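Feature request disguised as a bug: please show the residue count (260) next to Probable membrane transporter protein in the output. Example input:
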Amino acid sequence: MLELLPVELPWLLLIAFIAGAVDAAVGGGGLIQLPGLFTVLPQHNPAVLLGSNKFTSMFGTATAAWRYSRRIHIPWRPVLLAAAAAFACSFAGATAVSLLPRDAIRPLILVLLVLILGYTLLKKDFGALQRPTHVGRRELAIAVGLGGAIGFYDGFFGPGTGSFLIFLFIRFFGMDFLGASASSKIVNLATNVAALCWFVPAGQVLLAIAVPMAVANVGGALAGSWLAMRGGSGLIRRLFLALVCILILRMAWDTLHALA
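Example output, currently without the count:
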């Protein structure tokens, strides 16, 4: 059993709550929670902290997905197909970690994020309204392709998965920001469960902290999803742009640090 000093667990619970709220609204909770775990518990193996992060996030993501599904229209056929493909391909992404250097794709991800930011800023009506597309075989094939690519990326690298999902759901399925954020939670949940299929049997989850953090993350997810539905697509768009800017800064810093 992990012994925590009285000051450590409250900090971890606060981090988990904030991460759950941010992730429920626009994704990116891992940018808060994972560094928090590494900072508060530096003595533990990185794989254990990664597994604990996934375990905690899974419950918050499931809560947000449930909340959104009750209030927001979700095109279930393409979203569930994307989730299934993401689940399957996240295993391949995790396997590729040992075969391909992550540093090799970081500049590419940085360029993609800059393009997404520019496109969203220039196209003022992007994601402002729901413009549902007819879901035929072509759209279902696109859903499988997008889900597979995102699942592989999440298993291999991870940062920005939620942002990519939101952008792609708007671009290819005519969703608004709120609907895209809601739909992205279904796919995120699938990739979290896929990762835990390895982390849990391997004993790479600190249940003594992951369980209370999961409760806090669920509380944050309830607050974040409530705020997102209250603020609508306008709020999600602003949060999305802020998150993409943060991701760009982080990727740029990591890229420069890797080259130094």
